[in-house]
Write a structure and sequence with these properties.
It is built from 24 helices and 16 strands. By secondary structure, the chain is an alpha/beta fold.
């Protein structure tokens, strides 16, 4: 029989006694009476002097009294314990002298036991009641002191709001922040249609009147209904302190939000990007690049997000997230922190074309899945990840007049406008909130998550353009690098600061999150085609490895740079390519990629026959001499898509001109020609005339 079985049988053979437990009223009385009977019987049999029992009883009474005073027992408890000792000692003395086994001795002992048990129960209940009352009294005292502090704060701010804003506010609650950096006032606005905007407009005046430190604000926000207001008052300037990016790299999800920084109350602010795009602006030196890295860190931690990055400035925004894996600085098989990086126009064009193919194919491939889920939004999960397209200086691409950039801009706008439901969203950055950036109707409508970094810059910081409807926001409230204002549909625009993230921490995040990155789902990968499958081809990532480190030592050999002489590593050491011998020639690498792509996606379609070259025209390439193919200018398809998106309401020519960045006369001429070709329908209504798509006419 095993020891465990024996122990179990022994445990189940009878009641289990806990010999370390204290006595209760019953066990205490039994212990006292049986002990007295045993001592009296033994003393009578051995001729023990009876007076010894009285001495022991007196000593026990004195000891319990001293112990009770030390723990501050009540007087009745002290008296009961002392009397129990003395009564027990007296009975023992009498029993030793007269015989402990007589009916009189045993009956009196039983009576004493019942009395001790009843008295012990009574004193225990009394002590519990005293302890509860003491705790309640301490809590009432703390609440009274806190209530007094809150009442003083409420009275002070009621007077201040009356003096500065001319509003008689009734404060119904004051919540002290757990971080100790401020408090929130919950107030009822006076009758007569007063709104919280009147207090919000005077936020700077309230902050000055309260003598708040620099960087601290008094911000008015909507309450639980339109007749209430919440006033967040910051008393400690947390924006002045540079905090590192949190070292806990736990998993995140697009559904639970991605943290981008912290508010003035030291609480994290998160961006929910399942359906929203984002726009972040900030002048040079404001910390915008650091913010991009913080955003990429959050995306890398997510289990259901794949990140594509476009940075036409030599890909600098994404290189730090690729190089640790490219240079083998982490564990074997480590994946890059982002899934695709474009550092030039050609690669950006490939990426945007692939993204559009993915989004359009998802609309067809996942109709059954959305029907089963009873939703019109693609269910995003690690198996079907969301694609976040981060475009550094992307707003400048949209505002560019360069013909090539306009083609990229048209594709970016198509992604923003058409692929929300299919889980493809964008994060754009810009140097400033200019009219060409935030004046775009589609960006204003889709990019509801907005950030304006100030970094102490005052010139060109018109916050009303990026946060329309928010009043009382001033750049002076966030004068530190990495600080500014952030607003989301869930959190109104208010000061915030992002964490500081350093290159070594980026490498740590890439290594810690490598196994967490999802893989692009099969239908999407098939739609993306070779442009996506070959994104880590040596020919397309060679520029990433062209770093000054290769030439750091004069006369360094390839072996000194960590490469075997005569061998050229073709791209990342991805799991799909692991276990194969690297060939010496790039031709063999290309051949292996061709075989993989053909196995996964089938043979490539035949190249279409090249169209006949247009006959060269001598002289200047004037618009009047260009070949007219009847399709209109290159921006017209984008305009037609936008008009189609407005439905039966249509769009005015002026709105189309603002959308495509052209003169109104040129837009009118192109739209008129499109209407003559049947691509649009002109609805004449005087000054309210619009163009409507034929599907809605």
């Amino acid at each position: 029989m095993s020891a465990t079985t024996a122990n179990n049988k022994q445990a189940g053979s009878g009641p289990v006694l806990d010999w370390s437990a204290g006595h209760g009223p019953v066990t205490g009385a039994l212990s006292a009476t049986t002990g007295a009977l045993a001592i009296a019987t033994t003393g009578a049999a051995t001729g023990m002097p009876p007076a010894w029992a009285l001495v022991v009883g007196a000593a026990g009474a004195l000891g319990h009294t001293v112990a009770g005073l030390k723990v501050r027992n009540a007087g009745r408890t002290l008296a009961f314990k002392a009397s129990a000792w003395l009564v027990g000692a007296g009975w023992t003395t009498w029993a030793m002298a007269s015989g402990p086994l007589s009916w009189a001795a045993l009956g009196s002992l039983a009576t004493i036991g019942v009395g001790i048990g009843a008295g012990a129960r009574s004193t225990a209940l009394y002590e519990e009641a005293r302890e509860d009352e003491a705790i309640a009294a301490a809590e009432r005292q703390i609440a009274l002191e806190l209530s007094a502090e809150r009442r003083a704060i409420a009275a002070e701010w009621v007077d201040r709001i009356q003096r500065v804003c001319g509003i008689t506010l009734r404060v119904v609650g004051v919540e002290m922040w757990a971080t100790g950096t401020g408090f929130t006032l919950d107030g009822e606005l006076p009758a007569g249609g007063t709104t919280y905007h009147r207090i919000a407009a005077d936020a700077a005046k309230l902050s000055a009147d309260a003598r708040l430190p620099h960087g601290c604000t008094a911000t008015a926000l909507p309450g639980i209904d339109q007749g209430r207001v919440l006033i967040d008052v910051t008393t400690a300037n947390v924006l002045a302190t540079e905090l590192p990016y949190p070292a806990e790299y736990g998993p995140l999800s697009v559904h639970t939000g991605i943290p981008w920084g912290y508010r003035t109350n030291a609480e994290e602010i998160v961006a929910f990007l399942r359906e929203q795009c984002a726009l972040a602006v900030g002048p040079t030196g404001s910390g915008k690049t650091n913010l991009v890295h913080v955003i990429l860190a959050g995306f890398a931690r997510a289990t259901d997000i794949l990140t594509f990055v476009i940075d036409l400035n030599a890909g600098s925004a994404g290189l730090r997230w690729v190089l640790p894996a490219l240079n083998g600085q982490g564990p074997t098989g480590m994946r890059p922190g982002i899934d695709w990086l474009a550092g030039d126009y050609e690669e950006a064009d490939r990426m945007l074309t692939a993204v559009l193919r993915i989004g359009k194919h998802r609309k067809v491939a996942y109709q059954d899945l959305m029907a089963r889920a009873n939703t019109d939004l693609l269910p995003i999960s690690p198996e079907i990840p969301q694609i976040m397209l981060v475009i550094d200086e992307g707003a400048e691409i949209l505002a560019s007049n360069d013909k090539a950039m306009r083609k990229l801009a048209a594709k970016i706008m198509e992604v923003i406008r058409m692929l929300r439901s299919m889980g493809i969203r964008t994060v754009l950055t810009a140097l400033g909130a200019t009219g060409s950036v935030v004046g775009n109707l589609i960006i204003r409508r889709e990019a509801k998550v907005r950030v304006a970094l100030t970094g102490g810059e005052l010139e060109g910081m018109d916050l009303s353009k990026q946060f329309p409807g928010s009043r009382g926001l001033k750049p002076e409230q966030a004068p530190y690098k990495g600080s500014g204002f952030m607003g989301t549909p869930e959190s109104p625009a208010a000061p915030f600061k992002t964490w500081r993230i350093l290159p070594h921490q980026i490498a740590d995040i890439v290594a810690a999150t490598s196994e967490r990155h999802p893989v692009l789902d099969g239908p999407s990968a098939k739609a993306a085609g070779p442009d996506y499958a070959r994104r880590w081809d040596q020919a397309r990532i060679a520029w990433m490895r062209d770093t000054p480190a290769d030439d750091a030592q004069p006369g360094a050999t390839p072996a000194a740079a960590g490469q075997t002489p005569g061998r050229s590593r073709g791209g990342l050491n991805l799991s799909a390519l692991r276990g194969q011998e690297w060939q010496d020639a790039d031709a063999s690498i290309t051949q292996r990629f061709d075989e993989m792509i053909s196995a996964a996606f089938g043979p490539e379609p035949a190249e279409p026959a090249p169209a006949e070259a247009s006959q060269d025209r001598p002289g200047l390439n004037l618009s009047a001499l260009r070949a007219q193919d009847g399709t209109g200018p290159d921006w017209l398809p984008e305009a037609i898509e936008a008009i189609n998106a407005t439905g039966a309401a249509g769009m005015k020519p002026s709105a189309v001109a603002d959308l495509v960045g052209r003169s109104r006369q040129a837009v009118r001429d192109a739209l008129k020609a499109a209407a003559e070709r049947g691509e649009l329908v002109y609805r004449d209504n005087g000054p309210h005339s619009v163009y409507v798509h034929p599907d809605h006419a």
